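Weekly modeling sync, notes
Attendees: S.R. (lead), two postdocs, one rotation student

Agenda item 3: backlog of single-chain predictions. S.R. asked that every request posted to the team notebook include the full sequence so nobody has to chase files. The rotation student volunteered to paste the first one in as an example of the format we agreed on. Action items at the bottom.

Example entry:
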Amino acid sequence: MPERPLSPHLTVYKWTYAMTLSILHRLSGIALCLALIGLIVWLSAAAAGPAAYAAAMSVLASLPFKALIAIALLALCFHFANGLRHLAWDIGWGYERAQARRSAVLVVAAALLATVACVLLLFRAGAGGP
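Predicted structure, as returned to the notebook:
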């Protein structure tokens, strides 16, 4: 049997923004699945009582975990915005090249703006406190 390339699209097609957003959509879905683990830990600690919650929050409120939360928010905002773009495609809107490019820019801009807004609201002084 002759050797065939595993992914001919990587050698045949020119890299496009659509490929990038497609890969990012998949990666953001994986990131959201991983972030779900953190949410489960947080909720389990809250259900286990005040001592467990305080211990979990001392870790979850650290700078590295805040960075991970910000990344998870970026994944959520991007996945949501790009999902809306895919829903529009499912009903037949936005297939033309100019419209697809415009919607790609809109998705990235909306995801970044929504992430900044969420991070500012979530990490502002006094957020979530008594």
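Discussion: group reviewed the output briefly. Residues 45 and 56 are 6 Å apart (CA to CA).
Action items: rotation student to repeat for the remaining queue; S.R. to check formatting next week.
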